[in-house]
């Protein structure tokens, strides 16, 4: 199985590569459109700030390539957010694959921003969450979020519900770090590889 | 809701885990890779790895060891010690660190916090703060706790957060390694002053110390070394204790 990880200098990909290796696959880190098109699965990690990530994607021509991919595709963290229409983070236009606008959390005394740490999932649906239950925790680090919509496949609370995972056709996204979420994250990553 | 985190800390020198009292009198605590894997298995929520001699001897953290630890670790991994440039951070992230912790370099040049946050995102910038109680005031220390800066702790924490720190690792040097409990007043003052998560460190001894630092101290996470390394308190036991005490933890 050919697993491609999108290389656009968009943050820390090494943890994702190590997590895939622990699952016994040898991922290819690439920005080459042909390599991405012929991979069986594509992972799209992302961290950092939305406008610089979009700029890096455009510089590599990937803003055009990624939306045309047809195999199972998994955006992680910022990689999930970039699948939306628009982000409040520096007023950024995104890839436009899913109909959400990324918004900033508003901190209060009990809810800090970034939303950092282990939170449990709820309202799970879809093949990514086979064997995962609402009691299970995954690791989040983010200050912006996608609201809940018909595309939402998992939710978490901070304090209101937000999209912990989304899906539209072959495009999946998770706000949490599958690669850093212990056995639960490993299961979700393995479920993605099984799609 | 987001859970309170327990974070074992590996102080590493020359490839071995060590632990001292108030930053001195180090004793060996084992192989960092084996310890890291054990903690992840036991339910640690995160791991912090500090190359404790790096600042004073001016050498780079051990990227190879970082890579070996990252390879086995399926929980978040923070690396600190001697980091002073964007290039240092890039090398560590490429080795598999998820976050970096900066301390002396941020005190010497606070804009570094902003530069790192811009480049890599706040989520991977942890500012470590070593505070010592001097005549009733919490003073910030630098260079592995050997040099006083004249800065007051809460003010520096506020500045670090406003420059883009995604998290603060707050160590009371006055409590470090003493197992007498965390510095609750300091932790509470910082937690209330900033909106980013605060990791309390220094002084963990009894399970009740953790309940106190989460409840009275308002900490988001608690970091400890000795009690975990020397098998005094196992992470699953501690988590169960906290759960029964009504503290939200990941079980």
From TrEMBL, chain A:
Pathway: Amino-acid biosynthesis; L-histidine biosynthesis; L-histidine from 5-phospho-alpha-D-ribose 1-diphosphate: step 5/9. PROSITE patterns: GATASE_TYPE_1. It catalyses: 5-[(5-phospho-1-deoxy-D-ribulos-1-ylimino)methylamino]-1-(5-phospho-beta-D-ribosyl)imidazole-4-carboxamide + L-glutamine = D-erythro-1-(imidazol-4-yl)glycerol 3-phosphate + 5-amino-1-(5-phospho-beta-D-ribosyl)imidazole-4-carboxamide + L-glutamate + H(+); L-glutamine + H2O = L-glutamate + NH4(+). The active site is at residues 77, 177, 179. The keyword Lyase applies. One of its GO terms (molecular function) is glutaminase activity. It holds the Pfam family GATase. It is found in: Cytoplasm. Signal peptide: none annotated. One of its GO terms (biological process) is L-histidine biosynthetic process. Its EC number is 4.3.2.10, 3.5.1.2. SUPFAM superfamilies: Class I glutamine amidotransferase-like (SSF52317). One of its GO terms (cellular component) is cytoplasm. Residues 5-193 form the Glutamine amidotransferase domain. Gene3D superfamilies: 3.40.50.880. Its main location: cytoplasm. Keywords: Amino-acid biosynthesis, Cytoplasm, Glutamine amidotransferase, Histidine biosynthesis, Hydrolase, Lyase. NCBIfam families: IMP_synth_hisH. IGPS catalyzes the conversion of PRFAR and glutamine to IGP, AICAR and glutamate. The HisH subunit catalyzes the hydrolysis of glutamine to glutamate and ammonia as part of the synthesis of IGP and AICAR. The resulting ammonia molecule is channeled to the active site of HisF. Heterodimer of HisH and HisF. This is Imidazole glycerol phosphate synthase subunit HisH. It comes from Hymenobacter montanus. The lineage of its organism: Bacteria, Pseudomonadati, Bacteroidota, Cytophagia, Cytophagales.
Automatic annotation (TrEMBL), chain B:
The keyword Amino-acid biosynthesis applies. The lineage of its organism: Bacteria, Pseudomonadati, Bacteroidota, Cytophagia, Cytophagales. It is found in: Cytoplasm. Keywords: Amino-acid biosynthesis, Cytoplasm, Histidine biosynthesis, Lyase. IGPS catalyzes the conversion of PRFAR and glutamine to IGP, AICAR and glutamate. The HisF subunit catalyzes the cyclization activity that produces IGP and AICAR from PRFAR using the ammonia provided by the HisH subunit. The keyword Repeat does not apply. It comes from Hymenobacter montanus. Belongs to the HisA/HisF family. Heterodimer of HisH and HisF. It catalyses: 5-[(5-phospho-1-deoxy-D-ribulos-1-ylimino)methylamino]-1-(5-phospho-beta-D-ribosyl)imidazole-4-carboxamide + L-glutamine = D-erythro-1-(imidazol-4-yl)glycerol 3-phosphate + 5-amino-1-(5-phospho-beta-D-ribosyl)imidazole-4-carboxamide + L-glutamate + H(+). NCBIfam families: hisF. One of its GO terms (cellular component) is cytoplasm. Pathway: Amino-acid biosynthesis; L-histidine biosynthesis; L-histidine from 5-phospho-alpha-D-ribose 1-diphosphate: step 5/9. This is Imidazole glycerol phosphate synthase subunit HisF. GO terms for biological process: L-histidine biosynthetic process. HAMAP family: HisF. One of its GO terms (molecular function) is imidazoleglycerol-phosphate synthase activity. The active site is at 11, 130. Its main location: cytoplasm. Its EC number is 4.3.2.10. InterPro entries: Aldolase_TIM, His_biosynth, HisF, IGPS_HisA/HisF, RibuloseP-bd_barrel.
């Amino acid at each position: 199985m050919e697993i491609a990880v999108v290389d656009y200098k968009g943050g820390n990909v090494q943890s994702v590569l190590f997590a895939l290796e622990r699952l016994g696959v040898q991922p290819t880190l690439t920005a080459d459109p042909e390599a991405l098109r012929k991979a069986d699965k594509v992972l799209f990690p992302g961290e950092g700030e939305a406008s610089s990530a979009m700029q890096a994607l455009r510089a590599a021509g990937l803003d055009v390539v990624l939306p045309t991919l047809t195999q199972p595709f998994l955006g992680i963290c910022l990689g999930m957010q970039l699948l939306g229409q628009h982000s409040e983070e520096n007023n950024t236009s995104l890839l436009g694959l899913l109909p959400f606008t990324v918004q900033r959390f508003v901190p209060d005394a009990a809810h800090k921003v970034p939303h950092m740490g282990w939170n449990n999932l709820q309202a799970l649906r879809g093949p990514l969450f086979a064997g995962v239950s609402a009691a299970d925790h995954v690791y989040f680090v983010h200050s912006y979020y996608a609201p809940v919509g018909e595309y939402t496949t998992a939710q978490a609370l901070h304090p209101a519900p937000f999209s912990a995972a989304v899906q539209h056709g072959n495009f999946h996204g998770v706000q949490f770090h599958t690669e850093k979420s212990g056995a639960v994250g490993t299961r979700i990553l393995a479920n993605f590889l099984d799609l | 809701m987001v859970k309170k985190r327990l974070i074992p800390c590996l102080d590493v020198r020359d490839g071995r885990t060590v632990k001292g009292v108030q930053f001195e009198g180090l004793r060996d605590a084992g192989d960092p890779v084996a310890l890291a894997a054990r903690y992840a298995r036991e339910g640690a929520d995160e791991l912090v790895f500090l190359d404790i001699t790096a600042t004073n001897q001016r050498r780079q953290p051990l990227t190879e060891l970082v890579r070996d630890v990252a390879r086995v670790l399926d929980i978040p991994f923070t690396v600190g010690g001697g980091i002073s440039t964007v290039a240092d951070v890039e090398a560590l992230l490429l080795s598999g660190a998820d976050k970096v912790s900066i301390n002396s370099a941020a005190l010497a040049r606070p804009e570094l916090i902003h530069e790192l946050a811009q480049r890599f995102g706040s989520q991977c910038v942890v500012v470590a703060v070593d505070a010592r109680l001097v005549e009733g005031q919490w003073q910030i220390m630098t260079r592995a706790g050997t040099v006083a800066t004249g800065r007051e702790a809460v003010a520096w924490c506020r500045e670090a957060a406003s420059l883009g720190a995604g998290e603060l690792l707050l160590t009371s040097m006055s409590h470090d390694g003493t197992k007498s409990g965390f510095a609750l007043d300091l932790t509470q003052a910082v937690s209330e002053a900033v909106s980013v998560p605060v990791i309390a460190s220094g002084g963990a001894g009894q399970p009740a110390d953790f309940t106190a630092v989460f409840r009275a101290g308002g900490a988001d996470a608690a970091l400890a070394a000795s009690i975990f390394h020397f098998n005094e308190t196992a992470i699953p036991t501690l988590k169960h204790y906290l759960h029964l005490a009504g503290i939200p933890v990941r079980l």
